[in-house]
Amino acid sequence: MAKHFKSNNKKIAYIIFTILIILSVLYIIYLIILKIEARQESNLLNSVEIENVHNEITVDITNQVDNEKSEPEVTERMLKVRELQKENANIVGWIEIEGTRINYPVLQGEDNEYYLDHNYKGEKTANGSIFLNKDYDWNLPSTNMLIYGHNMKNGEMFTDLIKYQSEDYYINHPKIRFTTANEDAEYEIFSVFKSRVYYKSETNVFRYYNFINAENEEKYNEFVKNAKASSIYDTGITANYGDDLITLITCSYHVDDGRFVVIGRKS
């Protein structure tokens, strides 16, 4: 009886061990797949062929000089974004922070849900996409680009934003590059902070995620003041009314519904 009981225990232990091994292998495969997907997305810009487009745009610019004022310089990255938009019109730009893994297309959907779990091809993926708030109006354009990305265990998407908790990391990575079809711009980071999504009933809190269009100079300055006051450290940089802003947001697990935020002003 005792021998039979021990034998059953060994079988159960073996089965549990086997299941754990299988689950571990499946999880590793899952992480590898996510990493491959993210790598493909981050390398997308470099894979775009632009030779013919470059020739067409060069001719177009030459023919559009008006009153001796030339068009802004068209960079290779801008041309590549234009090519990518032929594949998916929801691609509004490309974001990169040099020296980090943040190097992705930025999409904008009709809502702020779809690109939480879809890539630029429209395929379902846990990585989702880096995406711009649906309410940003390119016809204005709006004051502040609110851009979201997941904080992934595999280190992809906006995970590297969390490293800005270190001032040394900021010093080594002080700028955000954002390229659209019409502009290749840099933003100087001036605020880095931890926050969360607040309840509607909470008052006197900094709802940075509601600021897209400045109603007036007072509202703009209030946002900048709150952003500076919330910052983990002083970057020595500020923003003045009229400066375009970019706000990068990812999840942070220091509190429920926590967020980590990095804000920059256009150089």
Structure write-up:
This protein has one domain: Sortase (Sortase, Chain: A), CATH 2.40.260. It is globular and about 75 Å long. Strands 1-2-3-4-7-8-6-5 form an eight-stranded mixed barrel. 33% of the residues lie in helices and 20% in strands. The chain starts with a helix and ends with a strand. Strand 1 and strand 2 form a beta hairpin. It has six helices and eight strands, in the order ααααββββαββαββ. By secondary structure, it is α+β, with helices and mostly antiparallel strands.
Q: Shape from CA axes?
A: globular
Q: Biggest sheet: strands side by side, in what order?
A: 1-2-3-4-7-8-6-5
The CATH superfamily bears the name: Sortase
Uncertain runs with pLDDT below 50, 5 residues or more? 50-69
The CATH architecture would be Beta Barrel
